[in-house]
Amino acid sequence: MSRLALRTPQHVLAGGLAVIFLLPLVWAAFASVSPQAGTAQTSGWGLGNYETLARYQAGVGRYLLNSVAVSGMTVVFTLTVALLGGYAFAMFAFPGRNALFLLTLAILMVPYATLLIPLYVLLNDLGLQNSLVGLALVLTMFQLPFAVFMMRISFEAVPRELRESALVDGCGNFRALRHVLLPAVRPGLVTVGLFAFLAAWNDFITPLVLISDSDRFPLPLAVANMRQQVMGIVDYGATEAGVVVLALPCIVLFLVLQRHYVRGFMSGALKADPHVTLHEAVPGTLDEAAPSGDWTSRGGTPAAPGSGRLRPLGLREVTLRAGFWGRRQEINRSASLAHIEHWLEREGWLGNFDAAVAGRLPGARRGREFADTEVYKLLEAMAWEHGRTGDAGLDARFRAIVARVAAAQEPDGYLNTNFGRPGQAARYSDLEWGHELYSFGHLIQAGVARARAFGPDPLVEVAVRAADHVCEVFGPAASPLVCGHPRSEPALVELYRVTE
Asked: Rounded to whole angstroms, how far apart are CA atoms 258 and 220?
């Protein structure tokens, strides 16, 4: 059976549902401009009913402004509380967390109409009865259980490593939320905000109970009052015009935000990222595993550990498309790498290697004791990105930096611009804070990235010489000292696996 035949019932069902949902709106729009007895539009097609709506008491503009104010405040209040509540429930462990969360959700089981009289009394005591702020606070309270639930699952769908990395880099909890996690949960925020807006915009019974001043009526309450003329005759034309005016903002807002709305509902629904594609290894490419011992052709596929059920993925076995990680990968390619290279050059951290070759150290050295590692981290990122895209310009910049780094390496493989030269501290004289082995770790890791993404290369040779030096100085029969900052150990293991 063809794919079209299989999908025909789905299309028919979707079309039928669309007609059912759209028919009342189309009918209301049609009735608002068509001639009807007992309305302002008794003959011909026109906007007479809309003129009646515009002139009703304080005017439709005033009622629209009231609705916008109430809905806007409800959205802001709901997003603020739900964002912080969802963040706390998802990211922090504290006694009674799940019990408190269930209690929050339990509010959904209470019919909100039964709460309006107690809330009316409370708002009256607070001086907020018959005010738009009080109305917005009540509507926010009704939205919070669902909103907090949505934000919790949105935060739980974000890798916890994102927040942990931000904290390691010096961010506090609020700064990590603002700068790192907030962009990742944007679809959930859109969903919560849209729900809060629609609920506040269309609510009728809450303002009916809490608002008594007709000048403060939101639009739904004003339209309901307007439909009654003398002797109980209903002005259907003006009522339909009010329905159209009420529906238009909701329709436009939903159409604009529907992509984020759907993604927000999908938050946490699937463990797999819909923006990540796994591929089979392609024969004849760098992703094809090479025979043992032939590391030069293994390329993008790392060697698997000697034991264990999991196999590392090759560089081209995963593709990040759109979505959070896809956007950041593109930002990394188009902006971040060049930005980092510019600042390393500007601050003189790249120039440290040139100064080492020219014998101008320590006087010409710039940066902290770990400045060399920032250059190696850049090389690692450039190696992976070149392996992913094959960008010739990026490869040329990469090779130019590698040449400057390689020129500063000592004949025995030692490489560090902060130790070992006249006027500098001796090699390995400050293992606790000097970052020498840590620096070697990032250098070797950059070499591993180049080996996996490209193959034999001058940077790989630099990394191998550095690893041989480390093994000679700190091997089983040598110094028993260790570095205060671990990094070299996993780098040495990965280099062994990729070159063995």
From this structure: 24
Q: What is the pLDDT of residue 60?
A: 77
Looking at the DSSP bridge assignments, the partners of residue 234 are 228
Contacts of 122 (CB under 8 A, 6+ apart): none
- pLDDT (tens digit, 9 = 90+) per residue, 283-315? 334 444 333 344 444 445 565 555 566 666 777
What's the rounded mean pLDDT across residues 355-379?
94
Q: What is the pLDDT of residues 80-100, one digit of tens each?
A: 999 999 999 999 888 998 999
For residue 409, the SS3 value is coil
CB 308 within 8 A of CB 352: no
Q: Which fold has domain 16-266?
A: MetI-like fold (1.10.3720)
The pLDDT of residue 286: 42
DSSP for residue 320: E
- CA-CA distance, 52 to 235, in Å (whole number)? 10
30/39 Cα distance (integer angstroms):
14
Say which residues have a Cβ less than 8 Å from residue 381's Cβ, sequence separation at least 6: 332, 336, 337, 340
> Residue 40: how many CB atoms within 10 A of its CB?
18
Contact 311, 295 (CB under 8 A): no
Percent of the chain with pLDDT over 70: 83
Domain residue ranges in the chain = 16-266, 295-499
At 322, list the tokens: 């759109």
Cα distance between residue 259 and residue 494, in whole Å: 41
Can you tell me which residue has the tokens 């770790």?
A: 441
